[in-house]
Amino acid sequence: MKQLLQTLKQIDGKGYKAYKSVQGHYRFSDFDLYIDYVQGDPFATPSKIRAVIPANKRALEASWLESYRRRVATEDVIARKVGNAIGKGDFSIKGSGKSGSIQFDRPGQEVLERSAVQADSKSITICISVGLPANGRKINGREAEKLFADAIPTILRNSVFSISDEEIEGTIKLADQQEAIRAEMHKNNWISFVANGSVLPRGSGVSNRPLKGAVPFQSPIENEVSIEIPHQTEPIKGMVIEKGITLIVGGGYHGKSTILEAIERGIYCHTKGDGREYVLTDPDAVKIRAEDGRQVTGVNISPFINNLPHKQDTTFFSTENASGSTSQAANVMEALEAGADTLLIDEDTSATNFMIRDQRMQQLVHKDKEPITPFIDKIRQMRDQLDVSTLLVMGGSGDYFDVADSVIMMEAYVPYNVTGEARAIISENPVGRLSEQENGFGSISARYFQQQSLQTHKGKKSKTQAKGLTKILMGQTDITFAATEQLVDPSQTRMIAEIIQYLDRTNALGNRTLNELLNDIEQQMNQKGLASFTTFKDQHPGDIARPRRYEIAAVLNRMRTAKVK
Ligand code: ADP
Ligand code: MG
Fold first, then answer.
1. pLDDT mean across residues, the chain
2. 124, 128, 123, 115: which is closest to 531 by C-alpha?
3. For the residues 44-52, what does the mean pLDDT come to?
4. Together in a domain, 519 and 458
5. At 310, is the pLDDT very low, low, confident or very high (cuts 50, 70, 90)?
6. Does residue 192 sit in helix, strand or coil?
7. Same domain? 489 vs 397
8. Ligand 1 contact, 412 CB (< 6 A)
9. Whose CB among 137, 353, 426, 513 lies 3.0–4.6 Å from 446's, allowing a Cys bridge?
10. Does ipTM top 0.90?
11. 92 lies in some domain
12. 255 CB less than 6 Å from ligand 1?
C-alpha cells in the first residue's frame, strides 16, 4: 500500500495518462489489491480493480464451496453485502467526470453465477470499478489516496470482513432446499413447483421486487404435493405442474399472466425475501411469444407455416421483418432447435391466428388458402413425438380444452383445478372444428451459423458491446432482443456480448450446429468459468453473469448479419 500511496504523491497534478503507472499489484494489511486496467481519462469507462482476500483473513468453510449451487450462493451473498457497503458508504471523493465513483455489479432478485465475486478455498476476489480522481484532466492524488486507503478498505470491512457465518449459511440452506426441490421435480417429471405462501406479483411493471399486500399463493388440493427438504423438519407444500399440456384459464385481471411470469422466472433461483424463492421451473423451459419485426434466418417453420404467397420457402425461412405469426413460429422452432423441453405461452403476447382457428373460420377460409397450421393442432404432436410440454395461458378460447391434460383456473389470484369441469363441457358441447395436423410434427432445423455472421468490426477495431439488457452493439450493427423475456440481468447481456466477441476471435462458427455450439459454450462455462471467454481472464473480466443457452441462441438468432447453412 505504501508503494501505491507514494506513486500517487508523485503523479499528483500530472496529466491523467500518468495514472497508467499505478497499474499493478499492491499488498494491503488484510487483502491484495490489483489495479488491472486504468481508464484513459476521467470521463471514460472507470478503471478496473480487484481486491483479493486470502483465506487466512476471511476463511470460507469447505462445505460452502462444495457444489456449484453452494458456491454461487456463497458468492452471491457476499456480493449483496459488498453492494450494500458501497451503497451506504459516503466517501465524498471529489473531482471531474467519474472521479471517485465506485461501481459494483450488485445482484438483482436472481441468484446468478457472476464475476463480481469469486470464491474458492484460497481466497475471495471482489471485482470493482472505480473512477480515478482528477481535477479537470489532472490527477488528484489526494482524492485517489482517499479512494484506496479509505474507501476500498472500508467497503471490505463492512462486507467481506463483517459478514457472519450464519448469514452465509442461511443462503446455503436456501440453495440446498432449492436444489432438493429441483431434484424431486426432475424425478417426478414436474415442470414447475409453486410453493404455498409464495408471493408472485411484482411491485410494478418496472420493479422486480415483491408486491406488498399480495394474496399469497395457495395450491389447489388436486395439484398439491409435499416435498421433504433439508434444513427444516416440515416438508414444503405447493402446486406442481406436470409434464404435458396445461392450460391456465380465468377472467381478465385474475392473475393468469402473473403466475405464468413467476413460472417463467423459476428457471432461476431467487434470493431470500423475493417471494419466489420456492417457485422453481424446468431450466429448459422457454417463453414463446409473437415478436413482429424480428429478423429470422434460415429457420424451418414449415411445421406451422406452409404455402406462403409467392411460394416462399418455409423449410428455410428468412425475413428481415417477420409477422406476428411467423415470428412466433420461428420462436417455437428456434427454442426446439436449442433444446427446449417446455414451452411457456401467454395469450396476451401471442398472435391469435398462430394460436387458434375456429370452426367457422375453417369453413370460410379453406385450409389450402391458409398458410398457418395453428399451435392447437401441433401441441399434442410436440408432447407425444418430441416430449415437449406446454404451459399456456388462454382465457379467450375453449377450443384448447380438447387438447389439454389439465386445466387450472385463476379466480381472484387463487388457482383451482377445473380439469373435470372442462372435460364435462367438452362432452356436452363438442366442437366441430377439424384437426389440421399432418402425421408427423415435422422436422427441426439444425443450422450451421457461418463465421461471416459475426461482423464485429467498426473501422479497424473489433468491438461487441452490451447496451443495457436488450441490445448489443456488434461492430456497426445493433442486435436487439427486447422480447427475450427470460434474459433478466444486464450482466448476462454483457456475457453474451463477450461470447460473440470470443466466437469471432477464435473462429468458432461454421463447423458445428447451433445446438452443438451451445453445448460447447456451456461446457466451457462449466469447466473454465465465465471469464474464460473474455480477454482479461485472470484479471477483472468485466461485470458478467451466466446466461442460459436459450438466451445466447436468442441473440444469435436476431443478428441481422446472420448467415446460416
Ligand atoms: P390476467 O393475466 O389474468 O389478466 P394479471 O396477471 O395481469 O391478470 O394480474 C392483474 C393484476 O393483478 C396485476 O396488476 C397483478 O399485479 C395483480 N395481481 C396478480 N396476482 C396477485 C396477487 N396474488 N395478489 C395481489 N395482486 C395480484
Ligand atoms: Mg394476462
1. 96
2. 115
3. 97
4. yes
5. confident
6. strand
7. no
8. no
9. 513
10. yes
11. yes
12. yes
Please tell me the distance between residue 192's alpha carbon and the centre of ligand 1 in angstroms. Answer: 19
177 sits in which H/E element: helix 165-188
Read off the DSSP letter of residue 260: H
Q: Does residue 253's CB lie within 6 angstroms of at least one atom of ligand 1?
A: yes
**Residue 66 sits in which domain range?**
2-163
Considering the domain architecture, whether residues 129 and 96 belong to the same structural domain is answered as yes
* C-alpha cell at position 24: 499493478
Q: Is the pLDDT of residue 438 over 80?
A: no
> Which of 163, 187, 219 lies at the terminal end of a domain, its last residue?
163
Residue with cell 503507472: 21
* Ligand 1 pocket: which of 253, 260, 344, 349 to mutate (most atoms within 8 A of CB): 253
Pairing of strands 24-27, 32-37: antiparallel
> How many domains does the chain contain in total?
3
Largest Cα separation within the chain, whole Å, is 89
Q: Assess whether 36 and 80 both reside in one domain.
A: yes
Q: What is the mean pLDDT of residues 381-385?
A: 97
Give the distance (Å) from ligand 1 centre to CA of residue 252: 9
Check pocket membership of 257 for ligand 1, CB cut-off 6 A.
Answer: yes
pLDDT tens-place string over residues 147-195? 999 999 999 999 999 999 999 999 999 999 999 999 999 999 999 999 9
Boundary (domain end) residue, out of 139, 163, 187: 163
Percentage above 70 pLDDT, the chain = 100
pLDDT at 49: 98
C-beta separation of 33 from 54 below 8 A = no
101 assigned to some structural domain: yes
Ligand 1 centroid to Cα of residue 407, in Å, is 19
481, 536: one domain: yes
- Pick the residue whose CA is nearest to atom 26 on ligand 1: 214
pLDDT band at 312 (very low <50, low <70, confident <90, very high): confident
